[in-house]
Write a structure and sequence with these properties.
With about 300 residues, the protein is an alpha/beta fold. The chain has ten helices and 16 strands. The chain has an eight-stranded mixed β-sheet with strand order 9-8-5-10-13-14-15-16, sandwiched between helices. Strands 1-2 form a two-stranded parallel ribbon. The protein has a two-stranded antiparallel sheet with strand order 3-4. A hairpin with a 4-residue loop joins strand 15 and strand 16.
């Protein structure tokens, strides 16, 4: 780091760094006090100022016995950082607020209402948006998916919690992508104790509507770009078009969740994109990573067109 920052080329590695025109990525890994040393921090900042890419080390127990910054990041995180360096930066300068996964609505301390969403699609969009240069705010329900490197996560459980967190973060966002599968209803009065089946279990459990997060964002859209998802089992385009219009969306991603090879809880998806100008684009069966980039390419074109 010190040699690269100060133009010292006295061995094969430092000479190669001076001579290459390829993007350079530094992944510093060292003792926490060495990492925090002001000289080292100045050198790292110098590298950034020169246009080199510096990955923040992980925090944890270090081989030297200390605990703190300086831990080598996991290989998959390093790969994600490298992918971001190599990717198109057509979303640079944007702050993308994404929702993902299901919500859970408590019936009692052991039971809840939910759906089959895994969060895979929303997490894939979050990863792809960060790779393309955006700052990414991810509000997600319960999910087994790993939060992508570089993304700023907020974990929630219920629809009300998701609504509150989205509205809190909305002023920071320039693009909103609502990929979460939010429960439409919740029990009006969740039981404080486990309901017993011999007492009728669900008898008397009344449901009330959850807040419509997408509609609430649509009412406060201003100059933000708003993207919604429509998970349908019939009349895919008609239902998606209605949602596009009533929720004040710029773009909607409509997918048929009755398919077994696409949609909920699988690694692939197929969809139809409908936009506010009447455009229609078919996205054939593909990985959710590919679909995430396809959706974001359409978002980037919207941004470029004003």
């Amino acid at each position: 780091v010190g040699k690269a920052a100060n133009g010292i080329a006295d061995d094969l590695l430092s000479t190669s760094l001076m001579a290459t025109r390829a993007p350079l990525i530094f992944v510093p890994s060292m003792n926490v006090n060495m990492f925090r040393n002001p000289v080292n921090q100045t050198n790292l900042q110098t590298l950034r100022d020169y246009g080199f890419h510096v990955m923040q080390p992980a925090t944890g127990f270090l081989a030297c016995g200390y605990d703190g910054e300086g831990k080598l990041p996991e290989p998959e995180d390093i790969l994600e950082f490298c992918e971001r360096v190599a990717a198109s930066k057509d979303l640079e300068g944007e702050t993308v607020l994404i929702t993902a996964g299901p919500t859970r609505e408590d019936i009692d301390p052991v039971r809840y209402i939910s759906n089959y969403s895994s969060g895979k699609m929303g997490f894939a969009i979050a990863k792809a948006a960060w790779q393309r240069g955006a700052r990414v705010l991810l509000v997600h329900g319960p999910s087994a998916e790993k939060v992508p490197y570089g993304v700023e996560p907020s974990a929630v459980t219920s629809a009300q919690q998701m609504h509150d967190k989205v509205m809190e973060l909305l002023p920071e966002a320039t693009i909103v992508i609502k990929a979460a599968a939010v429960a439409d209803y919740r029990p009006a009065d969740p039981a404080e104790q486990k309901l017993k089946k011999e007492k009728g279990l669900l008898e008397g459990v009344s449901l009330v509507p959850n807040p419509d997060i997408l509609a609430a964002v649509g009412q406060k859209k201003e100059d933000r770009l708003l993207v919604g998802f429509a998970a349908e089992t019939d009349d895919l385009r008609a239902n998606a078009q209605r949602k596009l219009e009533t929720k004040n969306l710029d773009l909607i991603v409509a997918n048929d969740v009755s398919r077994t090879d696409a949609g909920f809880n699988v690694d692939q998806n197929a969809a139809v994109l409908l936009d506010r100008d009447g455009g229609i684009e078919e996205l054939p069966l593909q990985s959710k990573t590919e679909m995430a980039h396809a959706v974001l390419s359409r978002v980037a074109r919207f941004r470029a067109d004003g």
